[in-house]
Amino acid sequence: MPIELVKTGIKGLDSMLDGGIPRGQSVLLVGGPGTGKTSFAMNFLYNGALNGERGIFISLEEKPDRIIENCMSAFPDWKEFRGFVKKGKINILKIDKWSYEGFIETINTNVSQYKATRCVIDSLSIMELYFERPYEFRKKLFDMMNFLSTTGCTTLLTSETPGSDSMRAAHPLAQYVADGVIALYKLEKKEKRVRALEILKMRGVGHSTDLVPIAFAATGMKVFEGEKIY
Ligand SMILES: Nc1ncnc2c1ncn2[C@@H]1O[C@H](COP(=O)(O)OP(=O)(O)O)[C@@H](O)[C@H]1O
Ligand SMILES: [Mg+2]
Description:
Layout: E1 5-6, H1 13-16, E2 21-22, E3 26-31, H2 37-50, E4 54-59, H3 64-74, H4 81-86, E5 90-94, H5 100-112, E6 116-122, H6 124-127, H7 134-151, E7 154-160, H8 172-177, E8 180-189, E9 192-202, E10 212-217, E11 220-223
Parallel strand pairs: 3-7, 3-8, 4-5, 4-6, 6-7
Antiparallel strand pairs: 1-2, 8-9, 9-10, 10-11
Adenosine-5'-diphosphate binds at residues 31, 33-39, 73-74, 216.
């Protein structure tokens, strides 16, 4: 059976992915602070909702109101966004006290009752703080990735790196276990910094390996396929 590809709907990206993300896969979004991980993840849910796919955004960092405000200021052309949130087509949940069991239950409920097919977990870096030992976190992360692969949801998980131009120390186990890894950067170019993206890994598709510029546009994030950074 041919694999079904889920379109991110982010301009320029789906053709770099050779169509999209294979349905049900988990993709890690790695990048430094302010590289656009949260925004990218919401683009994925918004574009899904425009096509009738329900999404769930599990935030361990920002409150739903803040996320909505930030998205509306970055993407003023998202006319349907507030409506999607109101109707639960994009369900933004803030988790204040993370537990593995609570998390699994939240995902199960959203998948079975609300038929969510796109999921975002923002971020693994905050989730990690709930564990005393690195080993415990890695073990649960492995369990969680296995669990996610059984839900049928196409999932984005964000992971914060210390610098905005590297992906050092960004959850190597998660990168290895995830079906896909997309890295976001802010690179130094003379006196300014340019936003960029590369697909490091995506199982099941012959994706581009180019490092390409990206930008925030009123209609959503844009990827400049085929363009050079320098
Ligand atoms: N309207 C906008 N135009 C350009 N950049 C924006 C706009 N709104 C927000 N940003 C950028 O997005 C960044 C925050 O993006 P976010 O998705 O929260 O990043 P991350 O989750 O990786 O920290 C801000 O630092 C800012 O540079
Ligand atoms: Mg963020």
